[in-house]
Design goal:
single chain; alpha+beta; Immunoglobulin-like; about 20% helix; elongated
């Protein structure tokens, strides 16, 4: 009986002492232009992350800005509670509408190159908050993607 209790104490101590590792932002995946509706360019993407820890967590929120040449085109928030499994990769679905008038205003200086290329480089910046056992981690997001029209 003493050996069993001692083993359980040692096993629990080893698990509890494992250091918490930062959740990592892996990038945006499946970035798609879904069309134009009511003057907005509709874009969807999955923000991919990796949880290297042996315990689960929960997404608290996502707060991401879509930028073109430093100008904010859209602000994306996600307050949907997503469970984060231990030792796994997980995706946060994002959808946004970017005003075509804002996008075109910023692109007028590059109109000739836009007509040739039919694409634009957008920057995604912000953060995502994940909580586990009362501890909240803020994960920075910084990503660039070439979007084709």
């Amino acid at each position: 009986m003493k050996n069993t209790i001692l083993f359980l104490i040692i096993a629990f101590s080893a698990i509890a002492c494992k250091e918490y590792e930062e959740i990592q932002f892996l990038g945006l995946r499946d970035v798609k232009v879904n069309g134009i509706k009511e003057g907005n360019l509709l874009i969807s993407a999955n923000a991919a992350f990796k949880n290297p820890n042996n315990f689960k967590g929960k997404l608290k929120n996502a707060n991401i800005y879509v930028l073109y040449n430093g100008d904010t085109l859209a602000h994306v928030t996600n307050v949907e509670k997503i469970l984060v499994a231990p030792n796994s990769e997980f995706n946060i679905p994002l959808s946004m509408g970017i005003s075509m008038s804002k996008l075109q205003t910023g692109l007028l200086s590059n109109l000739a190159s836009l007509i040739r290329k039919k694409s634009v480089e957008l920057e995604f910046k912000g953060n995502v908050k994940v909580a586990s056992f009362g501890f909240t981690q803020t994960i920075p997001v910084s990503y660039k993607e070439e979007i084709e029209f």
